[in-house]
Design a protein that fits this description.
Elements lengths: L4 E5 L3 H12 L3 E5 L3 H20 L5 H9 L1 E4 L10 E4 L5 H14 L5 E4 L6 H5 L8 E6 L8 E6 L5 H13 L3 E6 L6 H17 L5 H12 L5 H8 L1 H15 L8 H9 L15
Parallel strand pairs: 1-2, 1-4, 2-3, 4-5, 5-6, 7-8
Antiparallel strand pairs: 6-7
Bound molecules: acetoacetyl-coenzyme A.
Length: 283
């Protein structure tokens, strides 16, 4: 099927970024969140990012204005009724996501595709909350969405070939490289990334090196854009812990056990950049 109207549920950092790249690609986009102030914050994020892309000459002012013009907002899910593709980017809670998908399933057209941007909740579990598991898929964008090249596409147990093809085409139209994988814990990105981050936290916990030295060694030695502790702060330490717990529960393998220092940071509310403090302190 050809996708023209894209819905995004959740106007946080990820949802705003997804809405932005879809609008930049020429899709008509409807961004929905529960309250007007959440939607307004999402739009402010998009406008700031578009302005930055104009400043960097990635986009012309005309392209940015046109992208913004393709973006509308709503606080009622009914606004998504005419969408061909709806991408969910709400809180990482399986019960809340399942409830949302049951509702979306009842209001979008029969051919519409439902997608989740979850970083680790099983796609098959979310798809089972709908009557369209064949038209259900994982579309895992990376943060910051406007800059990161990848979409990790996850095929649930019943995702059809036609759904995969339509979503790959839509992702490519958004200027992304799309790579797919099957639906097993942590998919590929977080199954590989989180053990590295966790090991860096263990190194800090055991006093092997300072946070600055751990990050510098990995950044300079491996040519990573950020060290693993700075990256953990950027992702959010609560998110890192939740993903590690999904890996641990899913594989029942102790190699995925979260470092106690990570658990303690989350208990203290030191969640990284978003709370002003994690492994580092932020302005
Ligand atoms: N839109 C537009 N411009 C943006 C932006 C956005 N959303 N975010 C940052 N920029 C701009 C910055 O403002 C900056 O502009 P100036 O040069 O004018 O200051 C420019 O992009 C470059 O940024 P920085 O100079 O701060 O730093 P950088 O060159 O290192 O790039 C980065 C920033 C792209 C974030 C880079 O550090 C990077 O690639 N880091 C790793 C990110 C990563 O691994 N993301 C994946 C996380 S995992 C995930 O998302 C999935 C999950 O499930 C957990």
């Amino acid at each position: 099927m050809s996708i023209q109207n894209v819905g995004v549920v959740g106007a946080g950092q990820m949802g705003a970024g997804i809405a932005q790249v879809a609008a930049q690609a020429g899709f008509k986009v409807t961004l929905v969140d529960l309250k007007p102030e959440f939607v307004a914050k999402g739009i402010a994020t998009v406008e700031k990012s578009l302005a930055k892309l104009v400043e960097k000459k990635v986009l012309t002012q005309e392209q940015a204005t046109a992208a913004r013009g393709r973006l509308t907002t709503a606080t009622d899910l009914m606004a998504l009724a005419g969408c061909d593709l709806v991408v969910e980017a709400i809180v990482e809670n399986a019960d809340i996501k399942r409830k949302l998908f049951t509702e979306l399933d009842g209001l979008v057209g029969p051919a519409a595709i439902l997608a989740s941007n979850t970083s680790s909740i099983p796609i098959t579990l979310l798809a089972a909350a709908t009557k369209r598991p064949d038209r259900f898929i994982g579309m895992h964008f990376m943060n910051p969405v406007p800059l990161m090249k990848l979409i990790e596409v996850i095929r649930g147990a019943d995702t059809s070939d036609a759904t995969l093809a339509a979503v790959v085409a839509a992702g490519q139209a958004m200027g992304k490289e799309v790579h797919s994988c099957r639906d097993f814990p942590g998919f590929i990105s977080n199954r590989v990334l989180m053990p590295m981050i966790n090991e860096a936290i263990f190194c800090l916990h055991e006093g092997v090196a300072t946070a600055e030295d751990i990050d510098a060694i990995m950044k300079l030695g491996m040519n990573h854009p950020m060290g693993p502790l700075a990256l953990a702060d950027f992702i959010g330490l609560d998110t890192c812990l939740a993903i590690l717990n999904v890996l641990y529960d899913g594989f029942k393998d102790p190699k995925y056990r979260a470092c106690p220092l990570l658990v303690q940071k989350v208990q203290a509310g030191h969640l990284g950049k978003k709370s002003g403090r994690g492994f580092y302190r932020y302005g």
